Structure prediction request, 250 residues.
Amino acid sequence: MRRFTFFLTLATCAGLLFAQDGSIPSAASPEESATLPQLLPPPPQSFSTPSAIKADALLPYKQGRDLDALGRRSEAVVKYQEAIVICDKEIALDSTRMDSYTVKCWALFRLERYRQVVDVGLLSLKIKFDARVVEVMGESFYYLADDLNTIKYLQRYIDNVGEFGDRVPSAYFYMAESYLRQKRYDHADIAYSFAVYREANIARWWFRYASVVETLGENKRAYDLYVKALKLSPGLKEASDGMARVKAKL
Prediction:
């Protein structure tokens, strides 16, 4: 009995020592460990739980996005504005909360207030780097016709999240569109190819990709790409017209 008690005490002490020096790994998976520092910053003292803050801001934003998808734009606008008000209150209580800046940027983007997205994003990045903010800034720069910053910020986003980040396909698409506006067709070709490789179900992306390849004079490859666009959207007249053009040249 004494020996059992001794070993139990020894095991308990060892567990405490390991816990203090951090040698016991946490329960989070490697993927979770890699993303938690960015997605869940330390909670401010002013709030009870960080999840409540994030949910409050995200709820009206997501409702607005769903309403937009249904074509109920005026109702969606109200929800985006509601999300912004919530984010402003959160930021007033804790100016370092990156989730609040992020949701605010998303809502501003949906309201097509692109300059404000950039302004809020730049302010937040002075506090802490956040790839989500960088990405929405990149898309905003595209609509502001600032192709250099579009490419710069979207490339920075990809460099930080890797090839499998949520917005990587869109990032490549907007980069391709910016290259196209600059008439850098070879670069656009590559960027479009990455976009459709990661997201293969958007007919317009295939059409835009085919258009660049046609501009490069590669009619056979352009024809195949137009075919893929039409398989996804048989009524896409721009794609059918493009396919007819390159077919006549083959």
In short: Residues 1-54 have pLDDT under 50 and may be disordered. The two ends are 91 Å apart (CA to CA).
